[in-house]
Amino acid sequence: MNPLLVEAFTETVKFMEEVLQYSSDDVFDPNPYVPLANLNNGECMLTYFWGDQMKLSGQDSYLKQNGQLGVGRTPGSTKVLDRETGRLVDCTAELCQYGEYYQDIGWVNYSPYIANGGHGLAISANTTPEKQNAMADFLMFAGSKAQTDKYTIQNATANPSIYTAQDPTRKSHLVPDKWIAQGYDEELSKEYTQSLMKTALSKNLVVDIRFAKSSDIYGILSEQVLNHLNSYTGKSEEELAAERI
Question: Could you tell me the pTM of the whole model?
Answer without folding.
Answer: 0.77
